[in-house]
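for the writeup, i need someone to sanity check this before i put it in the appendix. the sequnce is what the collaborator sent (i think, or maybe the updated version? ugh). structure was predicted straight from it, no edits. if anything looks off just tell me and ill rerun, i have time this weekend
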Amino acid sequence: MRIRATVAALSGTLALSALAVPAAQAADGPDAPKFAASVAKVASVGTDGDTKITKVTVNGGKDVTIGTTEKKKFTVAVTATDPEGIAAGSAFLWHGPDSQSADAVLSPDDFEGKCTVVNATTSTCTVTVVADPKVDIFSNTAAGGGWKVYASVVANDGDSVEGDSYKSDASVLRAAKLTTNASPEPIKKGKTLTVTGALTRANWETYKYAGYTKQDVKLQYKKKGATSYTTLKTVKSDTKGNLKTTVTASADGYYRYVFAGTSTTPSVTSASDFVDVQ
């Protein structure tokens, strides 16, 4: 499992000056109790010399949205400075109440970051993470903010700095889906049109999409030939995530549902459904 490779690489990351991570990644890795012990080891952080981490950026500051099967690729960039320049850097994300009891880790396959020189004293070292929802995410409680970054950097003169509690500027969200269906079609002007749909989101524990319940969703309409949508009403999803409401058919046009999103789930807009009004 990838989580075991992550754990096995933690000690190598802590000893970044030796860049021992490739060998550590090849190991089979410890079991769950050893995982906790390794994460606890990350809490032992500090500075050796005058190296400083000045900035940590996850996915360019944009939220990372993960579904149930598709892998998500993003970067973690660590900018650091030292009078003698930066030699190497690495990072990974973790989630939990504290680093000693992390319940999820999103780590790069290659812990040795690619460092780009900014100037004689400063470089930005970037690692690429490929998040696999079937391996890296352990529970739905990890959705949203609260993710932290462990970052470690070594300078050309051997000085180093590491920390486990750099705040992630991006949240990790559960992907959402939204549908719209208006019927009957076609319909006579003045008759009642029923607009149904469903709001679902990724369940990282079952690897399926399930109804997102009791959420406000806007029903919007755009008359044929118009350039923008108008919100007609707000509909609340039921206990299974289903949506249903009625409107009076007035003219040919498009209907769609729009969900604004929450702290754990991104915004999503359904495909529109065209209705022919006769």
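Residues 93 and 149 are 5 Å apart (CA to CA). Residues 1-44 have pLDDT under 50 and may be disordered.
thx in advance!!
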